[in-house]
């Protein structure tokens, strides 16, 4: 069983594709995969409410993952998804007030 979210067969295809892209240097496969896994996790989590706990909080709080503004500048196609996240946050805040 893989310790990664991206399946091994899929990763081989992704890594091979990245190696032949101009402007992208992929010398260390492990670091490249860790980076890709982090992106995959954010994309998988976005749009869903999560429970966030911390030793500094009495009770868990609701949290939502969304895209960083810099990512949206480079990937304008993701703006609609991010806007949906903002609307979810707005709705949640309106029920609190």
Question: Would you give an account of this structure?
Answer:
The chain is mostly helical. It has 2 domains: 1-45, no CATH class; 47-97, no CATH class. Helices cover 55% and strands 8% of the residues. It has 4 helices and 2 strands. It has helices at residues 8-19, 29-45, 69-74, 79-96, and strands spanning 49-52, 61-64. It has a two-stranded antiparallel sheet with strand order 1-2. Strand 1 and strand 2 form a beta hairpin. The longest helix is centred in the last third of the chain and has 18 residues, at 79-96. The protein is extended and about 50 Å long. InterPro entries: Uracil-DNA_glycosylase-like_sf.
Number of strands: 2
Task: Please tell me what the overall shape is.
Answer: extended
- Overall residue-averaged pLDDT value: 88
Q: Classify the helix fraction into a percent range.
A: 40-55%
The SSE order reads: HHEEHH
Mind describing the biggest β-sheet? Answer: 2 strands, antiparallel
The stretches of 5 or more residues where confidence is low (pLDDT under 50) are none
Number of helices: 4
Number of domains: 2
Structural class: mainly alpha
Question: What Rg, in angstroms, do the CA atoms define?
Answer: 17 Å
Lateral strand order in the biggest sheet: 1-2
How big a fraction of the residues is strand? 5-15%
Q: How far apart are the termini?
A: 46 Å
